[in-house]
Design a protein that fits this description.
Layout lengths: L1 E7 L8 E7 L6 H11 L3 E8 L2 E7 L4 E2 L3 H13 L9 E5 L2 E8 L2 E7 L4 E2 L6 H5 L5 E4 L4 E4 L3 H5 L5 H6 L5 E6 L6 E7 L4 E4 L6 H12 L3 E6 L5 E8 L2 E6 L1 E8 L12
Parallel strand pairs: 2-3, 4-6, 11-12, 13-15
Antiparallel strand pairs: 1-2, 1-18, 3-4, 4-5, 6-7, 7-8, 8-17, 9-10, 10-11, 12-13, 13-14, 15-16, 16-17
Length: 269
């Protein structure tokens, strides 16, 4: 059983967000997938097995299964195209906890078609802005996470969250964002200690919220975004009704074989 590690939302190795991609011949037990994700110790590991005209796709952090993950979906599509399991002219179809997601090769990028998760104004849970150490210009909440807007890139880059406090709050994840400058329409960072990831390097699912938020603010349907983590990542964001198209690049950095006791027995539940 081959497992890959792919850096997503970058064309340069050791940048972007690393994701594990495990190709299965049949569905695997959830507990085994969680163990493999914990072993990989990446923000997400994706598991794919053939289903109908596509693949069942599930994502696991080192501690939990998640309902939507952009960078590991990009990594999965990248591996299907790179290994020849899917021809470049064909659309990848993924059956997920967030419904049908698709990906297609488009020049030097892969475009993901995801559901939009626009935020609505909300009060922050007590202690959230204090744990982030920011002055919030606006606070909103999406289906999954909180959004906190700050004034400048310098303030965004200076955020050093109190993760102990964040873990006590009823928050899956928090995106902190600010307007862009000459090169990008907006910047962001994403923190999710309750999902086992203190800071996610590049978060596709967050841009299903950030895209509608900044699209309304800027009066744009196409934007270029930068997630300002230590590794950094670039995302092309296009609004399409109730969908968000996320474009990015990916590069494979390693692959290996799961051996011995790490492999579950076929048919095991």
């Amino acid at each position: 059983m081959i497992i890959y590690q792919v850096d997503a939302f970058t064309k340069v190795p050791y940048r972007g967000n690393p994701a594990g991609v495990c190709l299965l011949d049949e569905p695997a037990p959830a507990a085994w997938m969680q163990n493999v994700a914990r072993e990989m110790n990446l923000s997400e590991t994706a598991f794919l097995d053939p289903e109908n005209d596509g693949y069942r796709l599930r994502w696991f952090t080192p501690t939990v299964e998640v309902a939507l993950c952009g960078h590991a979906t990009l990594a999965s599509a990248h591996i299907l195209y790179e290994t020849g399991r899917l021809a470049l002219e064909h659309t990848a179809r993924f059956f997920t906890l967030s419904g049908l997601l698709t990906a297609r090769s488009c020049g030097d990028q892969i475009e993901l078609n995801f559901p939009a998760t626009p935020p609505t104004p909300a009060d922050a849970p007590g202690g959230l802005t204090e744990a982030l150490g920011v002055t919030a210009l606006a606070i909103a909440k999406s289906r999954f996470d909180y959004l906190v807007e700050v004034a400048t890139l310098d303030e965004l880059l200076a955020v050093e969250p109190d993760f102990t406090t964040l873990r006590r709050l009823p928050v899956r994840g928090t995106m902190v964002t600010c307007p862009g400058g000459d090169d990008y329409d907006f910047h962001s960072r994403f923190f999710a200690p309750n999902a086992g990831v203190n800071e996610d390097p590049v978060t596709g699912s967050a841009h299903c919220t950030l895209g509608p938020y900044w699209g309304q603010r800027l009066g744009k349907t196409e934007m270029l975004a930068y997630q300002a983590s230590a590794r950094g990542g670039v995302l092309h964001v296009r609004l399409d009704g109730e969908r968000v198209i996320l474009g990015g690049q990916a590069v494979t950095v390693l692959h290996g074989e799961l051996v011995g006791a790490t492999v579950y027995q076929p048919g095991e539940k």
